[in-house]
Each structure stands twice: as structure tokens, then as C-alpha cells.
Amino acid sequence: MLAASGASELNLDVSVATWGALGLIIVVMAAFDLAIYARGHVPSVRENTIWSIGWIVIALLFGVGLWAWQGAEAGSQYLAGYLIERSLSLDNIFVFAVILSYFAVPEHRIQARVLAWGIILALVLRLVFILLGAALLNAFHVTFYAFGVLLLYTAWKLARHEGGDIQPEDNPALKLIRKRVTMTESYQGDRLFTKINGKRMATPLLAVFVVVATTDIVFAIDSIPAIFAITQEPFIVFAANAFALIGLRSLYFLLVGLMDKFVYLSEGLAFILAFIGVKMLLIDLWHVPIWLSLAVIVVTLTVTALWSLRADRKKSAASP
Length: 320
Known about the structure:
Layout: H1 2-5, H2 16-36, H3 45-70, H4 72-102, H5 108-139, H6 142-159, H7 172-180, E1 193-196, E2 199-202, H8 204-228, H9 234-245, H10 248-255, H11 265-281, H12 290-318
Antiparallel strand pairs: 1-2
Helix pairs in contact: 3-4, 3-10, 4-8, 4-9, 4-10, 4-11, 4-12, 5-8, 5-9, 6-11, 7-8, 11-12
């Protein structure tokens, strides 16, 4: 069905053992990422920079291996998918920063734990949505058009900055848990629950996890259709998502202080998502070559970064 639609000529024969090997790689990488912040260690800017670059190098090496194993088409699709998911993860980082700031989450160690659980949950949700999305695309061709419309809507919201002003207090799940669960006024270390005068109570950290979890669901809904426009191979889709998410904590602590410098990130991501949305809507008329998708993503991210730096320099020059 997919090959007949012109969406993708690629048809990987991935065994259960290969899926298991990918899962093992992801688990090992996640374990290393957890170890970085274990025992209250606070990595320096230099350490976060090294780890962030290291995760990117590992992700690219995986792409090289996939290229050598399955050919240029598979490698190109993985690279394009990884770039899209990594780009969207930057927006996710800023949303996480808003959430942690709103709840005044103390200590680097506790923030790292929240991010760790958020990333683990995101990986699980991505796998679920990928399998569901692949099944829908195979069963119902109209799903391509539904995904295309969803991406255009998401792009429109990003361009209007409607998704940028996150208000955690408006989160329905948070409102529900506050009504049903008695909560302490202050944090109790990294505990979700505690006992005060013999009464079991939740801590504010539980509320943070609830908001992060529901936000992860929104992220998955937005990002999965984007990569399905590049490839419908579940193995490539999951690999690109997993490698984009692993190491997100290091990137968070590296970029959280630079949020104000990425002033045009939303516009850049909106353009990329709009391009991908149009690509999905044109799937029966024109199969956009993978090199063009890669070029659009790379050029847009480069222009967005340069444009943001230029605006930041102007702002700094105008400041007294």
C-alpha cells in the first residue's frame, strides 16, 4: 500500500533480533545518560557540551551504519527524520523549562530526574504512536491527508506563537489531580509522596510529573506525523525519535540559559512543519525527493539560527 502510493519505495526487512539490538542500544544509552546525573553530580557547561556533541555523533554514526547496511535511501531517510525530531526537541526543551520554572523545581538533581522520566515516557509514547501511525497508514490511505492537515495546523499555531505561551495551571490533568489528591506546600527532596503527621500526601513533584507526562503526549502527536512524511518504516521512525530524545537532558542544561537567544525558533519550525504538511498532502501527485526534504530542513535551521543571532546582537547593541 505504501509503496503503491508513491510515499516510499523503501521496504526494510527488519528482524526481531535487529529490533532487539536497537532496543538494547537505546537502553544502554539511556543508562549512561542517567549515570551522568547520578548521586547529585552537577555537570559543568563543558561537560554538558561534550555530552551533547557526543550524543549527536553517536546518532550520526548510527545513520552511517544504517546507510552501509540498507543503502543510501534508508540512511537519508533516517538523517532527515533525525534532523526533524532533533529540531522539534529544541521547542520541547523550552516548554520543559517553562514547566520547571512555573513549579519552581529546586536543585539540579531533581530537575534532572524530572527530565529523565519525561524522556523515558516520551520514548514509550513515541513507540506506541509509531506502531499506531504505521498501522493507520497501511490500512487507510486518507491518514496521509489527515496527518498533512494536522501538521499545517501545528505550523500555523507555532507561527502565531499560540503554542509558545505554556500555562501549566490550565492543564486539565493538573486540575484533576489537585482536586483529588492532598498535596504538600513544599518539595520533599525527590519524593513524589510523603507522610506528614501520619497522613500520606503527594508533593508538588507529582504535579510536575503529571504536566510533563501530558505535555509528552502533545509532543508525540505533533512530531510523529512529521517524520511519517519522510518515511513510513517503523524501524527508521523509532530510531530517529529515540536518538533525538536521548541526551536531551544534557542539551537542556546547556541551552536553558540561552532561551531568549532563539527568538525565531518557532518561525523556523513552523516553516519546516508546513513544508512537510504540504508534502503529505501532495503525496499522490508528487513524491518529494529525500534530498530536497533534507535541504529544506538544513537551510531553514541554518537561516533560523543566523537570523536569531543577528536579532540578539542588535538587541545587545541597543541595550544600555
